[in-house]
Amino acid sequence: MNFLKVYKKLNSDYQCKNKHTSYRGCTVSVLTGKKPVSKLLILAILTCFYSCTKTESTDVELPSTVEIRNSLLYLNGSLIDYTHQLFHDTINNQMIFAFEKSDVSYNSKNSLGFTFLPYKEGKFLLHKEPILYKGALTLFSQVIAEDLKGWKFELDKPEEGYFEIINLDKTNKTVLIKFKAKFKLDSKNGNGDNGLPENLKFEGIFNEKFEEG
Fold it and tell me: Which residues lie below 8 Å from residue 42, measured CB to CB, with a gap of 6+?
């Protein structure tokens, strides 16, 4: 995995203007006029609301620790396989954690990242501002056919998530981390199905070596 490419994708521009009023993925129109709204129309709107409301998966009971190279990553409660690269940026003295998965069925690459973290142990808040040491800048991106934008997600309910550096061995260059982060769909960028649900919840525990540079 080319870490520099992943890092650039994780730090790309996440701003987007939403042209639709929506409720959990359903476009909703504001109804005005003198005629009373029919019961059938009200029922249709309510059906849309309820059908778009999805039950969130229960949190995974992650172990307190794992043996090195026996890391675990879950997406919406299901175990998944992402490649990873853990990195200590010695210039800014920050920790960077990047996870990537290629999906040949959709010719896409999905990238999850936590950056701008201090080089120390602790439990950190999730956020989406490019501010060093504020906590864990938390990002998710998708690229199709190597250079086209896929579905765009934004960090959701950061107060319900966390990123924890449980153990940082600076001598042997190993780190034990645990995290939970949620994302919600912001824009499909004109794409159809991409193999992902509209709401993502990543939970993981990693005990791996990290690189420096």
Answer: none
Burial (CB count within 10 angstroms: exposed 0-12, middle 13-18, buried 19+), residue 32: exposed
Contacts by 115-120 with C-beta closer than 8 Å and gap 24+?
115/7, 115/10, 115/11, 115/139, 117/163, 117/165, 118/93, 118/94, 119/88, 119/93, 119/94, 119/95, 119/168, 120/165, 120/168
Residue 213 to residue 78: CA distance in whole angstroms: 34
Region 95-116 average pLDDT: 96
- Return d(Cα 203, Cα 174) in angstroms, integer: 20
pTM: 0.76
DSSP label at 160? G
Q: Which two three-digit tokens encode residue 174?
A: 């190993």
Whether the pLDDT of residue 1 is over 50: the answer is no
Give the phi and the psi of residue 97 in degrees, each rounded to 5.
-125, 120
Distance between CA atoms of 77 and 79, rounded to whole angstroms? 7
Nearest-angstrom CA–CA distance, 94 and 118: 5
Helix (H, G, I), strand (E, B) or coil at 48: helix
Q: What is the pLDDT of residues 59-72, one digit of tens each?
A: 999 999 999 999 99
pLDDT number for residue 54: 56
